[in-house]
Design brief:
This protein has 11 helices and 13 strands. The protein is α/β, with parallel strands linked by helices and 369 residues long. The protein has one domain: Alpha-Beta Barrel (TIM Barrel). The strands form 3 sheets. Strands 4-5-6-7-10-11-12-13 form an 8-stranded parallel barrel, surrounded by 5 helices. The chain has a 3-stranded antiparallel beta sheet with strand order 1-2-3, with no helix packed on it. The protein has a two-stranded antiparallel ribbon with strand order 8-9. Helix 5 packs parallel to helix 7. The radius of gyration is 19 Å and the shape is globular. The chain starts with 34 loop residues before the first strand and ends in a 17-residue tail after the last helix.
């Protein structure tokens, strides 16, 4: 989402962990962590079908451009362990175009090599905990304007250079995915695919960004969000970019205030998921509850669709859905629904397990205890 115009407020709740959520994590797979696309599925390093079930970690898109940090909250091993304890296998990391490229006067220590090194170190830390990383172009701006928010589309001035640089940086890391642009909106599908003129500047189309990534030699999966803040997928298949690696993934953002309702899930999202992997890059609701995401997660489970909760940050409801009230992993009233659902999936897998026929979790790709 795009309501983070300033540093979010922090609210503290008291919520006890359930024993279910604190059950030991499955042991990590012995094969190297990697991810690819096969038909309409994501696959792990052993070629087994997996889903991405995880969280967003907001902060790296705004702290640097606002000039007060690189992350919002801790980014150490303890904080990652708290995320992993929720039985996730992926973390989406929003990035800032200016900070990565060190342009438009980003503050000293918050751009270029410092920013890139911080992101790389965090990605490496996630991998140590068996977590895939999704790198997302979240905030951008054309020309000399500062990237203090997101636009209708990626900009032709900097976005191709951004993705050339990011893809070059991570092309040897098989456990990352590239999410080309957070939430396209207020443009046509033709503009989405090939770019167009926005008032005063030129957008970059998705085809040009796919081409930029692949030109580096990077072969990792590429995620592309649809229109209407990545909630409208109606024209995705008809406007699918060409990809020599044949590893494109649909990114779908789903909140209780979006247009795509449960009927749309069945008429638009499900048919698409039968053709190409669908990752719900952001999932949440604005009422500090979890009835909406509960319904969606159950539906997504039945359709083999991935999802990542928004967001692993200690905000209050006025600043957007926050999963946690502290970085130890204590859930908010909203987050408790997400946490407990993933815990239940993990328990369900263990109960249905019948070794040695099944040696890995079919959802996350990890080995059982």
């Amino acid at each position: 989402m795009s309501w983070r115009g300033s540093r979010p407020l922090i609210v503290m709740f008291s919520a006890a962990f359930l024993a279910l959520a604190m059950a030991p994590l499955p042991a990590f797979a012995s094969t190297p962590l990697s991810i690819g696309v096969s038909g309409n599925h994501l696959t792990n390093g052993s070629g087994q079908t997996i889903r991405l079930l995880g969280v967003n970690r907001s902060g790296t898109e705004y702290a640097c451009i606002q000039g007060w940090g690189l992350f919002d909250g801790p980014n150490d091993a303890t904080s990652v362990a708290a995320m992993a304890a929720w039985h996730i296998n992926a973390v989406r990391i929003p990035l800032n175009e200016d900070c990565w490229l060190n342009i438009t006067g980003v503050g000293a220590g918050y751009g270029g090599a410092a920013y890139q090194s911080a992101i790389q170190s965090y990605v490496n830390l996630l991998h140590q905990y068996g977590l895939y990383a999704i790198l997302d172009l979240h905030w951008n701006a054309p020309g000399a304007a500062k990237a203090t928010g997101q636009q209708v589309m990626p900009d032709a001035d900097h976005a191709p250079a951004f993705w050339t640089s990011v893809a070059t940086f991570f092309k040897s890391d098989p456990a990352v995915l590239f999410d080309l642009y957070n939430e396209p909106h207020d443009v046509t599908w033709a503009c989405w695919l090939n770019g167009c003129t926005s008032p005063g500047w030129q957008t970059a189309g998705m085809q040009s960004l796919v081409t930029a990534v692949r030109a580096t030699g990077a072969t990792q999966p590429i995620m592309l969000g649809g229109l209407a803040w990545s909630n409208d997928l109606s024209g995705w298949s008809a406007n699918r970019p060409s990809d020599p690696a044949n590893a494109l993934v649909v990114s779908f953002h789903n909140y209780n205030f979006n247009v795509c309702d449960p009927t749309c899930w069945n008429t638009t999202v499900a048919p698409l998921a039968a053709q190409v992997p669908v990752v719900t890059g952001e999932l949440g609701e604005s009422d500090c509850a979890h009835a909406y995401i509960d319904q969606y997660m159950g539906w997504a489970d039945a359709h083999g669709i991935s999802y990542l909760g928004w967001t692993w940050d200690t905000w209050d409801c006025s600043n957007g859905p926050a999963l946690i009230s502290n970085y130890n992993g204590t859930p908010t009233a909203f987050g408790i629904g997400f946490r407990d659902h993933l815990a239940a999936l993990s328990v369900k897998f263990r109960r249905e397990l019948s070794p040695p026929a099944v040696t890995r979790c079919p959802i996350c790709g990890r080995r059982p205890l």
